[in-house]
Amino acid sequence: MTIKAFVIGHPIAHSRSPLIHGTWIAEHGIDGSYEAIDVAPAELPGFFERLRAGEFAGGNVTIPHKEAVFALCDSVDPLARTIGAVNTLVARDGKVHGTNTDYLGFLGNLDVGAPDWSSGKKPAIVLGAGGAARAILVALKSRGVPVILLNRTRSNADHLAAEIGGDVRAGELADFDAAAPSAGLVVNTTSIGMHGSRFDGFNLDLLPSDALVTDIVYAPLVTPLLADARARGLRIVDGLGMLLHQAVPGFEAWFGIRPLVTKDLRTRIQATL
Ligand code: ATR
């Protein structure tokens, strides 16, 4: 029987997930499909009935459903609860389980791009305290990496730091230069970097020479922050790998094979940016 998976969103046309999963399905010769399905918010409960009825093995969830699906899932992974978003559904025996694979995508991307990235346990400077930052903080906490969480609105950083717990210190963007000399990693989790916008007033020269700089923005692939870091001789990892690696656990759960994030896959997706 053909194994079916999906990505649901509204709208959904922009999603690159069908290309990622379609590439893996073809690569492994699986009798399966992965389709983008436009599901309006009012149609979500009905879609879950189709899932429970066994029509699909599972799928991905994107905007605007990542929070709404909590109430519809039969069980939700505790980490997805902490992150506040479900991006992956697995249907089994008439029940739907929700998880979040974004933090695994973040870790997978760095583990491949800079394998020693967390070995020194130097603090990571995380820029931004919105939805995307939550997954990054969960990821860093799971590796025991201390965090300096800097945000435009200080109170948002304070709240998030308190919520995630562990070794997270909150501050403002203006604190970057003071934090830089001790940092091993800088992560941008804000939308700054899309459309050519950049952080002003950061002195990247204050970072240790072996520091790693990464961005969750992947269009453009080399954001102004990454370009500045590279120009200073710092190591960089772009955000496209996070998108690719977050897809791995879902594919494995639905189709039973752990797929590889190959150079060829990267090139294919990069061509669509
Ligand atoms: P997402 O869910 O994608 O993380 P979000 O929840 O809207 O998006 O969070 C956006 C983050 O980017 C926030 O940390 C926001 O800072 P504020 O808490 O001060 O709003 C940050 N951000 C967005 N635009 C910014 C800008 N122009 N300068 C600095 N920070 C910005």
TrEMBL record:
NADP(+) binds at G128, A129, G130, G131, A132, I216, G239. Residues 7-89 form the Shikimate dehydrogenase substrate binding N-terminal domain. One of its GO terms (molecular function) is shikimate 3-dehydrogenase (NADP+) activity. Coiled coil: none annotated. Residues 239-260 form the SDH C-terminal domain. CDD domains: NAD_bind_Shikimate_DH (cd01065). Gene3D superfamilies: Leucine Dehydrogenase, chain A, domain 1, NAD(P)-binding Rossmann-like Domain. Involved in the biosynthesis of the chorismate, which leads to the biosynthesis of aromatic amino acids. Catalyzes the reversible NADPH linked reduction of 3-dehydroshikimate (DHSA) to yield shikimate (SA). This is Shikimate dehydrogenase (NADP(+)).
